[in-house]
Amino acid sequence: MNTHAFIQDRPLDLFWFLPTAGDGRYLGSDVGNRAPDNAYLREIAVAADRLGYRGVLLPTGQFCEDSWITAASIAPFTEQLKFLVAIRPGVATPAHYARQAAALDRLTNGRLLLNVVVGGNPRELAGDGIHLAHDERYEQADEFLTVWRALMAGEEVDFEGRHLNAKGGRTLFPPVQTPHPPLYFGGSSDAAIDVAADHVEMYLTWGEPPAAVAEKIARVRAAAAERGRRLRFGIRLHLIVRETEREAWAEADRLISHLSDETIANAQTALRDNSDSVGQARMAALHGGRRDALEVSPNLWAGIGLVRQGAGTALVGDPATVAARIREYQALGIDTVIASGYPHLEESYRVAELLFPELGLTVGHYGRESRVPAGLQTAIGQRSGLGAARAT
């Protein structure tokens, strides 16, 4: 099989990220904090839309601005951009989320995607009223999605489960996308994979080495096949792309230059003690909290995971090298990359200018030459001097 031809026949969807907990140039530092105010988030989304990113991911959690309100406030300023918004089972009823999803899908004219986030921090979840053990949360998610999908399809729902119930549930105003906006989902445990196989359209993995990603895709694909279903696959990665390898690795070093050994140790302890997530444990195992063991696979750097929960790896290198690494994931079955870079506004331009042409992607409204106009790179450089922010 000609792998290169296979990849070319399956264009990559490249998403960007809205940093609704704050942004900056240094991890684990309050130096020059760039707050997640709505105007700044809108600026990132408009840039992503103009540059040709497929969509943006909006995270959820105690330290984030609400993803639904943020998406609804920003979407009218964009044209093509899709909004991948978090939906957390257990925080609200399936009927409530069904009405919200249908309304936001209509508001965006079918540009809503939904990221099902069960959550891996029991302390944070308790603050939202969820007091369930790990596997029980996935049981609840299974019930939630069973009801939610039926409601979105226009059915009247009577349901009695262990965690949820509904009698005569219905929605009167349908979404634009039928039967519902596509569901994205990530989770590395057996319980999570069962939920993915039963309910979602897109399975997401964090940026692990290719062999680990291949093993995970095989597990999910087999579970879905047992149910007569096929899923698509995506990966969540940070990107540090520069014109040369030396510049890219220097940028990676700069990103963690304000981290002390004590800060790293405290962050790793907090991540370990406050999480029962299998995926989070896999992220932590990549680097073990060590600064001298961060390149965990060629060009895959785990420095972000020293202090950041969730997606903790970045592809680092020049455009051709990073594109080659992404194609390795594509060859495994990945067709979507949800990317980010610090700070997110400037890096959205840099990634579009340097990496899009290597991936065969066109830079959106700048025409078919796939290049940012001359002079814009100067503006990017000026932007990068605006100061640092607390990265999340």
Automatic annotation (TrEMBL):
- The residues the entry assigns to the signal sequence are none
Q: A single GO BP annotation from the record?
A: alkanesulfonate catabolic process
The record, for NCBIfam families, names:
alk_sulf_monoox, PRK00719.1
UniProt keyword Transcription regulation present: no
Q: Which reaction does it catalyse?
A: an alkanesulfonate + FMNH2 + O2 = an aldehyde + FMN + sulfite + H2O + 2 H(+)
Instruction: Spell out the family assignment given in the record's similarity comment.
Output: Belongs to the SsuD family.
Main role?
Answer: Catalyzes the desulfonation of aliphatic sulfonates.
Q: Which UniProt keywords apply?
A: Flavoprotein, FMN, Monooxygenase, Oxidoreductase
Domain of life (superkingdom): Bacteria
Q: What is the name attached to this protein's record?
A: Alkanesulfonate monooxygenase
HAMAP family per the UniProt record, alphabetical: Alkanesulf_monooxygen
Tell me the ranges covered by the Luciferase-like domain, including all copies. Answer: 14-335
Do you know which PANTHER family this protein is assigned to? ALKANESULFONATE MONOOXYGENASE, ALKANESULFONATE MONOOXYGENASE-RELATED
Enzyme Commission number, as recorded: 1.14.14.5
The molecular function terms of the Gene Ontology recorded here are:
alkanesulfonate monooxygenase activity
Q: Where are the transmembrane segments?
A: none
Record flagged with keyword Metal-binding: no
- Provide the top EC class: oxidoreductase
